[in-house]
Every structure is written in structure tokens, then in C-alpha cells.
Amino acid sequence: MLELLRGTDPMAERKVIDARGTYCPGPLMELIAAMKQIEVGDELEVLSTDEGSASDIPEWINKVGHEMVETTQQGDVWHVVVRKAK
Amino acid sequence: MKTLIVGGGMGGTILANNLARRLGRELRSGKAQITMLSASDQHMYQPGLLYTSIGRMAPDELYRDQASLLEPEIEFHVDPAVTFDLDNNRVVTKSGKSHGYDQLVIATGSRAAPETVPGLAEHSVNCYTEQNALEMWRRVREFKGGKVGIVVGVPHKCPMIPLEVTFVLHDYFKDRGIADKVQFHYTYPIGRLHSLEPVGKWAEREFARMGIQTTTLFNISEVDGEGVVHTEEGEKLESDLLISVPPHKGMQVIEDNNLGANGFIPTDRLSLKMEGRDNVYVIGDTTNLPISKAGSTAHFEAEALAENLAALMKFGEPVRDYDGKVFCFIEAGKDRATYAMFDYNNPPAPKAPNKAVHWFKMAYNQLYWASARGLL
Ligand SMILES: Cc1cc2nc3c(=O)[nH]c(=O)nc-3n(C[C@H](O)[C@H](O)[C@H](O)COP(=O)(O)OP(=O)(O)OC[C@H]3O[C@@H](n4cnc5c(N)ncnc54)[C@H](O)[C@@H]3O)c2cc1C
User: Fold this and answer.
1) B80 lines ligand 1 (CB under 6 A)
2) Please, are residues B163 and B156 in contact by the beta-carbon 8 Å criterion?
3) Ligand 1 atom at minimum distance from B66 CA
4) B115-248 has which fold?
5) What tens digit of pLDDT does each residue of A21-76 get?
6) What is the percent of chain B where pLDDT is above 90?
7) Ligand 1 in contact with B39 (CB < 6 A)?
8) Nearest CB to B196: which of A1, A24, A64?
9) Which of B146, B206, B216, B310 has the fewest CB atoms inside 10 Å of its own CB, making it the most exposed?
10) B157: Cβ below 6 Å to ligand 1?
């Protein structure tokens, strides 16, 4: 589920991937697919109930060279925000 | 009440038959009408392609006449949808016919799109169409030994295929007596061997035992003229036989009608309504839901939606939400299998593979036709 919001950068678009309660393909795989759909500079926010997302998303983002914007936990939902850098 | 179903694959067929059974009286009296549009007069059992790619299921075993699978009250046309005029509740087909509806269900599926990664179509084989599965079987049969690479694009349908294709090929080469001449290198997009964590952990132990090399966080960006795979993460993979699970797209008609990026339609995870539309529903691979693109997903969504569409007619409102249920068999070689079952609230907990589950999957390959008819 992708939803359009304004990002932390007022010029950038932020899309939300609601992957709460989903296991397969899972939040990181959804993020990898969604990254191909957005422009450099745009942001994606992944909502996940899988604690692993707080570490496996940054691991991939850093390996590929995109940017982590923030990771927060609200109740049992992790909000992981990333920016496409290339 | 007129229900128009676009797509006669797993989701569309199970929905149409289930709904027709629930509305038998209304259909006979003319109060309800179910029309299905499809792109083919044949129904393919796509999971059978895995077996075709290793020479264990002939292509003719994969098909049935679509009309023979449908309840007699369902009006069926082999005439693909071309234009979706959702504001006027109309779908126009290739032949130029216009079909009105009260409720529209879109179930046009997804397709492997190897052409979206430079070099992938030219340098790899896959089991995602009949033609590709036969070409894979030819290459596998002629393979005398060397390195087999497995690469996985996202999104893809049937999340178990990357593991299954590796296990069944491993056993195939073992049976041919050339296992010692074949080295497997399995790669996967995320940081473990499968998106389902317990399945990934189990595969790690199995692959270690079988001597299969693995690389994770591996996302193909191109395959060069020498057949070497390059990734977004800066990795390389050389192989003598490259097996791909190509990235998938929804159908072109969905993109052409601006119904969803990449051909996947924004869908509500509980009601299965297309976002922003009250009388348009989406099931199966065509949704943009972050759940497995699998026949079982299409099946459980179709059951929930059939119940709701019938209830709309009988009670004036839907009676239940889709709960995110998915059930996947996992072939763990030529004669062992396991399964994973999960929904929005319950994570999967797969058991160790055994022969009984494999034989159940073999039986299901035939029982599928009863399932498509809505009998199972
Ligand atoms: C090799 C392989 C192995 C698999 N293994 C498994 C497995 O073990 N378990 C599992 O659960 N799933 C498996 N799957 C996945 C499963 O087959 C799909 O997820 C499932 O078929 C999706 O159902 P669907 O109704 O969304 O689409 P489909 O079954 O693909 O049906 C789409 C239908 O839409 C029609 N259509 C297309 N365009 C139009 C148009 N413009 N107008 C009208 N109709 C149109 C097509 O003709 C077709 O009838 C496998 C798939 C493959 C390829």
C-alpha cells in the first residue's frame, strides 16, 4: 500500500508502505521494489510490526548508498524513513 | 445485480464459481448476473511450470478449457478488457464490446518482466511461462556441469520459487550423477535466504549441508554481455547456467488505464476495494498489497470477496474482512516438502519437510482443478 505524503524536505515526496502485519515478501523487499518507482531525493516511509526492520532496512540502505532519514517506534509499529540517493 | 469479473485465472475463477453457488437462485431468476472476461480460452495451472522446467510435467498437463471450469450460469467471453471507464461503470473489450456492471472485480494477474533488467532476458532462463520453462528444461538437460547461479528480482510471484528451484535442480543433477560437477550459488535480495525468517533459517542449514554457496543483499541491476550479473550493492556473479526469478509487473492494460503504477492497483487490505472506488474490487497478483503474490492468496481473497458480494445482495452489506491468509507449499527436493501458513496477525511457523507433504502437493497439483471449480 503506497500513500503520498509530504516528506521532511518540503520539495521531496514521501510515499508510505504499510507493511504492518505482513511477513512475505516483508517490509525490506517491499522497500526495494518501491525504491525503483520513486525519483532521486524522494522519501519512503515503511510501517512495520517486525522489529527486524529497524536493523535490516538500514543495513541494505547503507550497503547500496541511499540515506536513512529516521527510525522511530510508535506502540508496536516501526516507522523507518529513507531517501533515495542515486 | 451485475458482477463483472475481468481475468479468468486462479482468483477470477474461484471467485466466479464461489459466487455463482451462493447466488444460484438469484442467477436462475435473472436478479443476479455474473460475466467473466478473459484473455484466453485456456486456464493454466502455473505452479506446474516448476515441474515442466525440470522435465516432470508435460505442457499439456498444465491446461484445461476455461469454460469447462465455470458454473453454467456464468457468462464467459474470451475478449480481453482494453478500457476501464470506472466513472461510468463500463469496461470496453478488444472486440469493441462494452460491458456495464454494478460490481467490478479485477483479477488480471502479474507477469515476469525480465526485460526490465538489462541483459537478464538474454542471459538467464526462468520457469515463468510455458515457453521459458521449456527453454529452461532444454538448458538444464544439456548442462554437463559448472556453476549454477540463482538470482531473484522484486517483486515476484510465488515467493517459494527461489528456494524450490534450487532444491529441485540440486536433486535433478544428483539423480543424473553429476552433483559433484555442479556448484550452486544462491542469491537473495534481503539479508537472509528467504523473506519468511524461519524458512530462511531452515534453508541456511539445508544449503550448508548441500554445499550451496549463498550471497544475500543481492539485487540485480544488469547482466553484462559476458553473462556476468552486477548488483545495486556492487557485487558480481559469474555462472555457466543462470536461473532467474525475474522482477514482475502487473498487466499492461492496468498501466495503460492509469489504475496503478507498474500494473499493481492500490487496494484496501481488508475490504479488497480499489482505493477510492466503492464498487471496484481487486484480487490476486493485481493488488499492490504487501503480501505474497501466490495462488493461495488469490484463493483466500476470492473466497472472502465471494462471501461479501453475495452478502451485499442478500443483506445489503459485506460480512467479513480478508484476514491476510496465505498458505504456501515448499518443495524441499524431489520427494520432501513443507508448508508455511500465515495471516495479518499470525506469523508462519513451518515444520521440518517430509515425504507426506510432498505427496500432498503432488495430489494438490491434480486437486487444483476441483479447487478452481470452487469445490475445495
Ligand atoms: C512457476 C510458478 C509456480 C507457482 N507456484 C505456486 C505455488 O506453489 N503456490 C501458489 O500459491 N502459487 C504459485 N504460483 C503463483 C500463482 O500461479 C499466481 O499467484 C496466481 O495464478 C495468481 O492468480 P491471479 O488470479 O491473480 O492471476 P492469474 O492466475 O495469472 O490469472 C490472470 C488472468 O487474467 C487474464 N487476463 C490478463 N489480461 C487480461 C485482460 N486485459 N482482460 C481480461 N483478462 C485478462 C489472463 O488470461 C488470466 O486468465 C506460481 C506461479 C508460477 C509462475
Assistant:
1) yes
2) no
3) 49
4) FAD/NAD(P)-binding domain (3.50.50)
5) 888 899 999 999 999 999 999 999 999 998 888 889 999 999 999 999 999 999 99
6) 95
7) yes
8) A24
9) B146
10) yes
pLDDT for the residue A4: 47
Q: Please, where in chain B does CATH 3.50.50.60 lie?
A: 2-109+251-314, 115-248
pLDDT in tens, B87-129: 999 999 999 999 999 999 999 999 999 999 999 999 999 999 9
Phi-psi region of B30 (alpha: psi -120 to 50; beta: other; left: phi over 0): left
- Please give the positions of A annotated as active site: 24
| Per-residue pLDDT, A8 | 52
What value does the mean pLDDT of chain B take?
96
Global pTM exceeds 0.90: yes
Quote the CA–CA distance of B156 and A40 in Å, as a whole number. 24
Looking at the complex, does the CB of residue A47 fall below 8 Å from at least one CB of chain B? Answer: no
**Residue B192's closest chain A neighbor by CA?**
A56
Is B30 buried (19+), middle (13-18) or exposed (0-12) by CB count in 10 A? exposed
- Is the CB of A86 inside 8 Å of chain B's CB atoms? no
- CA terminus-to-terminus distance, chain B: 26
Atom of ligand 1 nearest to the CA of B13: 25
Q: Which residue of B has its CA nearest to A50?
A: B347
Domain containing A44 equals: 2-83
- Looking at residue A7, its pLDDT comes to 45
Taking CA atoms, what residue in A is nearest to B288? Answer: A1
Q: What is the pLDDT of residues B212-264, one digit of tens each?
A: 999 999 999 999 999 999 999 999 999 999 999 999 999 999 999 999 999 99
Give yes or no for a cis peptide into B155 (omega within 30° of 0).
Answer: yes
B2-109+251-314 has CATH 3.50.50.60 classification: yes
B295 lines ligand 1 (CB under 6 A): yes
Strand partners, B71: none
Residue closest to B113 by CA, chosen among B269, B247, B275: B247
What is the count of residue pairs from A and B with beta carbons less than 8 Å apart? Answer: 81
Instruction: Say which CATH number the domain at A75 has.
Output: 3.30.110.40
Q: How many domains does chain A have?
A: 1
